[in-house]
Automatic annotation (TrEMBL):
This is guanylate kinase. One of its GO terms (cellular component) is cytosol. Belongs to the guanylate kinase family. It comes from Anisodus acutangulus. It is an enzyme of class 2 (transferase). Keywords: ATP-binding, Kinase, Nucleotide-binding, Transferase. Coiled coil: none annotated. InterPro entries: GK/Ca_channel_bsu (IPR008145), Guanylate_kin-like_dom (IPR008144), Guanylate_kinase (IPR017665), Guanylate_kinase_CS (IPR020590), P-loop_NTPase (IPR027417).
Length: 240
């Protein structure tokens, strides 16, 4: 405290009898400078939250619900060369494009990362992230484990990595069967891949167990992670 600059002659009225305004003004005069209403904590930085996990664990389901309950988040729409599934909408679920269009984006360095997954290309357009972060929005990226590993190399600790996992292999397999999107061949590939993928949990910052019938709790936990990150004294800073 700047003891030397404090005026010694200021009379401070007794707090029991003075009005709030009188006391406030007297205290201001006594400390020798006006009380500032500037925020004491800096504004939190926009975050990049990478949500990943084995196939069929519920990444889309969690993100869909998060989109409904949380504002100020941009959910990155991934570009893909895979065919549209029933009910999917271009520009909302994915940007569906031809292989040639996708290869053009690779050549122009317009993708943050891309990969060939089960025979189809998937990638994250950079410009979308830049535009929304500039508006102060948090960014949620949904990627497979391979994508998360690549993003970790690119973004290091500047992004938050969340691993979504089912409570057990049994639950995961039943969820994949119930979804009715897979052939017996792709089911086998996805299960084998999921076994390998669970081993990557340690490369993530947080793990969220998406228990059967408890989607709401998983979404709440992801929200809590975002809130906790916003409250960090040393914020993550992203440049892409
Ligand atoms: N907590 C949960 N309880 C019950 N069912 C769930 C839960 N979370 C997701 N599901 C269901 O499990 C199925 C798979 O979920 P989803 O498609 O979201 O997985 P995904 O991780 O995005 O899969 P992929 O990587 O293959 O696209 C969906 O039918 C979804 O509705």
């Amino acid at each position: 405290m700047a003891e030397g600059r404090r005026p010694t002659h200021v009379h401070i009225p007794p707090p029991e009898t003075a009005t709030k305004a009188e006391l406030y003004r007297a205290l201001e005069a006594a400390v020798g400078s006006p009380f500032s209403s500037d925020p004491l904590a800096p504004d939190p930085h926009p975050l990049i939250i990478v949500v990943s996990g084995p196939s069929g664990v519920g990444k889309d389901a969690v993100i869909k619900r998060l989109r409904e309950v949380r504002e100020n988040i941009h959910f990155v729409v991934t570009a893909t060369t895979r065919g549209k599934r029933i009910g999917e909408v271009d520009g909302k679920d994915y940007f569906f494009m031809s292989k040639d269009e996708f290869l053009g984006m690779i050549e122009r360095h317009e993708l943050l990362e891309y990969a060939l997954v089960y025979g189809d290309y998937k990638g994250i357009p950079k410009q979308q992230i830049r535009d929304h972060m500039a508006k102060g929005l948090d960014i949620v990226l949904r990627v497979d484990i391979q994508g998360a590993a690549t993003l970790r190399r690119i973004l290091r600790n500047s992004a938050v990595f969340v691993f979504l996992v089912a409570e057990s292999e049994d639950a995961l397999v039943k969820r994949l069967i119930d979804r009715k999107t897979e052939t017996k061949e792709t089911l086998l590939v996805r299960i084998a891949t999921a076994r390998e993928e669970v081993k990557h949990m340690e490369e993530f910052d947080y793990v969220v167990v998406n228990r059967e019938g408890e989607l709401e709790n998983s979404v709440k936990l992801v929200e809590s992670i975002i809130d906790a990150e916003k409250a960090k004294v040393r914020q993550r800073t992203v440049t892409i």
